[in-house]
UniProtKB/TrEMBL annotation, chain A:
Membrane topology of this protein: Multi-pass membrane protein
Membrane-spanning parts: 9-30, 98-123, 135-158, 170-190, 228-254, 274-293
Matching Gene3D superfamilies: MetI-like
Protein name according to UniProt: Glutathione ABC transporter permease
Family: Belongs to the binding-protein-dependent transport system permease family.
Organism: Paenibacillus radicis (ex Gao et al. 2016)
Positions of the ABC transmembrane type-1 domain: 96-297
Classification of source organism: Bacteria, Bacillati, Bacillota, Bacilli, Bacillales
Gene Ontology cellular component annotations, sorted alphabetically: plasma membrane
From TrEMBL, chain B:
Limits of the ABC transmembrane type-1 domain: 96-285
Main location: membrane
Annotated compartments: Cell membrane
Organism for this UniProt entry: Paenibacillus radicis
Name of the molecule in the record: Peptide ABC transporter permease
TM region positions: 99-123, 135-154, 217-243, 263-285
CDD domains: TM_PBP2 (cd06261)
Length: 307, 305
């Protein structure tokens, strides 16, 4: 088991380095270098440009720039914004709580709703309720989140005026954005849970449990569900990535503050250090959560532990 | 787990056996047959719209009727008009071409590249496998839309760049599934036999393994078209789509957002169009999976542990 954990940790580090490299090369793939963006068409002397190039380390050979960049990032230094000269780390951290609360709430909605629908669907399989739930979850995964958001605003803000359509503030501001992401995620989870429950129902151990006379309720909720939820746990890691990315669109729809908003603004303004920092931040979150999910997998599932 | 304990549990198992047998025989319920028929019809309509929009759109998509701005859905304008007095239904009909084009070509491009990477990794094994899969893992850490967003921002807003952006973010999924498939097929005896016969690696991969990996590829491709359409419309919703006279569904929706309190139809119908298209495509994918695909667990082999 220790070997599995160490192995998994090493892979995460390699992947993180890979992401760093990808993010670094982004700088060199972009047409126009940061100096041009910084001076933004203002007439400046060659000396100023040379100074700026030096400041960004662009006069160094590529491999030196690469190692310097990695060194800086490992020290938590993501550079400064080209637009307002603010420290990227500070800028991102200021927006972090808003995005995390949005992501977590939508995750809770997605998991509770998704597992509930998935289990009901599997238990009542091939009957009307199952058909209905399958249709709902099919729509769930097929609707663009921004459209769900707009529909929710139409219903709850414009028509009934129950919840605010945009802005940041108390809890009521996060409900609609989280619901629009949660609904889509719930569709995904419901389909997944239904599938893995049906798969588990047909396994021989279930026949054995029934044969020994266990009540159907115990078979389903104690044994089948437990087995079916293991693949669903893996989904959580994937879902987090999806939701974090979804925040980019949703925060823009609801005019919320947050990492997504910062990313979008930075991408539009070609503010490279901010884009790099934000991508690195979400990527490392994704890597960490998936690492935790994989590790918890080895704890939950004895089959993984032993192999 | 307590919240799932409903009182209806014991009774609901009565019909179980009969229903299971019915599905095993391959007969489908009336409900799912109707659903499939409806989505097939819808898909056919949208493809016709995309081929010859001028035959179906009652108005020109660029025609601005200043005497009929922000008209509610009614007799002359079925789905209403926008701020410029353009007919929403005609705009949707004309926009179907872009939606299908982005969805299908992004999957063809990203899917082929991903499949090639995955198949190579699975077949070669060892170092190359680890190297390629770590590359894919890296690509996966950046959530799809974020990757696509960055790429299309780098390349600039255009239809072609949008396709590139969406296809790059669909590479990892294909690579993982195809790797798993190839790994499973590679160990079967007929591959060993082909090797013993002196067949080249290239020929084994493309003539012996590829046909067996085709159906998961097709299923994944169909599902991929759905998510590519969603991602593409998301990007153009954010203003990174094509810049042309005829807005695509995503940007139409985005324009409608500003008029949401006075004209709900502008944002609602393009979104409905996206949803219905993606629902139909996904349903087709589900059907394909049920018809030819292996069990759902086929992707499990793709996990690089």
């Amino acid at each position: 088991m220790l070997k599995v954990i160490v192995n998994r940790l090493l892979i995460s580090i390699v992947v993180l380095l890979g992401t760093l490299t990808l993010v670094f090369s982004l700088l060199h793939l972009l047409p126009g270098d940061p100096v041009n963006i910084k001076v933004a068409g203002n007439p400046v002397s060659a000396e100023v440009i040379a100074n700026l190039r030096h400041e960004f380390g662009l006069d160094q050979p590529l491999y030196k720039q690469y190692f310097q960049y990695i060194g800086k990032v490992l020290h938590g230094d993501f550079g400064k914004s080209l637009i307002d000269n603010e420290d990227v780390m500070v800028k991102l951290m200021a927006q972090f709580p808003a995005t995390i609360s949005l992501t977590l709430l939508s995750m809770v909605i997605a998991i509770v709703l998704g597992v509930l629908l998935g289990v009901l669907s599997a238990v009542y399989r091939y009957r009307s309720l199952d058909h209905l739930i399958r249709l709902i979850s099919l729509f769930g995964i097929s609707m663009p989140t921004f459209w769900v958001a707009i529909l929710l605003v139409l219903i709850f803000s414009v028509h009934w005026q129950w919840l605010p359509a945009s802005g940041v503030g108390g809890f009521q501001y996060v409900i609609l954005p989280a619901a629009s992401m949660g609904i889509v995620g719930a569709g995904l989870i419901a389909r997944m849970v239904r599938g893995s429950m049906l798969e588990a129902i047909h396994e021989p151990f279930v026949r054995t449990l029934r044969a020994k006379g266990l009540p159907e309720r115990t078979v389903i909720y104690q044994h089948v569900l437990r087995n079916a939820l293991i693949p669903a746990v893996t989904m959580i890691g994937m879902l987090l990535g999806e939701l974090l990315a979804g925040a980019v669109v949703i925060e823009s729809v609801f005019a919320r503050q947050g990492i997504g908003r910062v990313i979008l603004d930075a991408i539009m303004a070609k503010d490279l250090p901010v884009v790099q920092g934000a991508i690195l931040l979400t990527a490392s979150l994704y890597i960490i959560v998936n690492l935790l999910v994989d590790l918890s997998y080895t704890i939950i599932d004895p089959r993984v532990r032993e192999s | 787990m307590t919240q799932m304990e409903s009182p209806a549990v014991p009774s609901m198992w009565r019909g179980r056996k009969r229903k299971t047998v019915r599905m095993v025989n391959g007969r489908r319920s009336l409900f799912s047959r109707l659903l499939i028929a409806a989505s097939g019809l819808l898909l056919a309509c949208l493809i016709l719209f995309a081929i010859a929009p001028q035959w179906f759109a009652p108005y020109s998509p660029t025609e601005m009727n200043t005497s009929a701005i922000l008209q509610a859905p009614g007799e002359s304008y079925w789905l209403g008009t926008d701020y410029f007095g353009r007919d929403i239904f005609s705009l949707i009909v004309f926009g179907s071409r872009d939606a299908l084009l982005v969805g299908i070509s992004a999957v063809l491009l990203g899917g082929s590249i991903g499949a090639l990477i995955g198949a190579t990794a699975g077949y070669a094994g060892r170092m190359l496998d680890s190297l390629l899969m770590r590359l894919i893992d890296t690509l996966m850490t950046i959530p799809g839309i974020l990757l696509a967003l960055t790429i299309s921002a780098v390349l600039g807003p255009s239809k072609f760049n949008l396709i590139i952006a969406v296809s790059v973010s669909s590479i990892p999924g294909f690579a993982r599934v195809l790797r798993g498939q190839v790994l499973a097929i590679k160990s079967r005896p007929f591959i060993e036999a082909a090797r013993a016969n002196g067949t080249s690696h290239f020929s084994i991969l493309f003539r012996h393994i590829a046909p067996h990996a085709l159906s998961p590829f097709l299923i994944m491709g169909t599902m991929g078209v759905g998510s590519a359409i969603l991602m593409g419309s998301g990007l153009s919703f954010l203003g990174l789509g094509s810049i042309s006279e005829i807005p695509d569904w995503g940007s139409l929706l985005s324009q409608g957002r500003s008029y949401i309190s006075v004209a709900w139809w502008i944002a609602t119908f393009p979104g409905l169009a996206i949803t219905l298209l993606v629902v139909s495509v996904n349903l087709l994918g589900d059907e394909l999976q049920a018809a030819v695909g292996p069990r759902k667990g086929s992707t499990k082999g793709g996990d690089s542990k």
